[in-house]
Amino acid sequence: MWPTDRHGLVHRDDALQNGISDRRIAAAVRTGELIVAVRGTYLPAAVLVGRDDSEAHVYRQRCIAAALGPGRPVLSHDSAAAVHGIDLLYPDRSRVHVTNGRLSGGSRRPRRVIHNGLLADDDVVELDGVRVTSAARTVADIALSTTRLPQALTALDSGLRAGLLVHEIEPRFHTGRRNCGFARHALSFADGDSASPGESWSRAQMIEARLPLPRLQVEYRLASGRRAFCDFGVDDRFVGEFDGLIKYRRDMRGGEEPEEVVIREKLREDELRDLGLDVARWIWDDLRARRLVPRLERHYDKLGIRY
Length: 307
Fold this sequence. Notes:
Blueprint: E1 10-11, H1 12-17, H2 22-31, E2 34-38, E3 41-44, H3 54-67, E4 74-75, H4 77-84, E5 96-99, E6 107-108, E7 112-115, E8 124-127, E9 130-133, H5 135-144, H6 149-161, H7 166-169, H8 180-189, H9 197-208, E10 215-221, E11 227-234, E12 238-242, H10 245-251, H11 258-274, E13 278-282, H12 284-288, H13 292-303
Parallel strand pairs: 5-7, 12-13
Antiparallel strand pairs: 1-3, 2-3, 4-5, 6-7, 8-9, 10-11, 11-12
Helix pairs in contact: 3-4, 4-5, 5-6, 6-8, 6-9
Organism: Gordonia neofelifaecis NRRL B-59395
Protein name: Transcriptional regulator, AbiEi antitoxin, Type IV TA system
């Protein structure tokens, strides 16, 4: 049994004090029993068994290990998002991101990105001993660091979904920072009812194509008496569903096979059509291949929805 701290990390010094030799630690790293978080700090691989988010969890632990190191740097951007649990679209998990609190001195290294930027008192919080930028500063930083609407919108949607308010984010888009106009534009479309990065990316493609903005999490009462919540709805004539693997795992009941979830979703879709609704579904590959907008345009043309 490896000695771990409150974050579940193994520190070399603690291991040595518990009678575990450097040779034993090195062997555990070679065999994959331990995963190197930062030099001298490790994550037991056993904690990843059965997790669907192994890559995200390892990255989060690496960020925490870095934040506990010399100087206790302030995690920011993608690293702060990982600690806060803020969803991002294709986050950078190859490096730890920190902000130095100065107007200069930023740099990019193989395993770390140091962002320059002043940090106000309310820009930094401590979570279980780890210093990170606040949730509002984190989503603002991410929106300001990109010119891609899907990335900015996903972070802002996730921040609002977690309980942030627009007035907590918008003041951070002041004119002294790059891309503030773009970030404000993204914030004007942000919506906490967007339930996942896939839904945010879907909406970003709709926004960029100037399609009608759908209502989110639209509720319908089905003939069976069940309630159906649809990801997107337009004019009570069309509903759209983004199908991610997480959604199917979330909807699986104890002991169910994936096929049973698919069948239940098909029956639900039939009941939605019985209400006179046109239904479309799409997946990650449709977003990556930019097939969503042409598909929606075909549905809207058929229904006479103007765009």
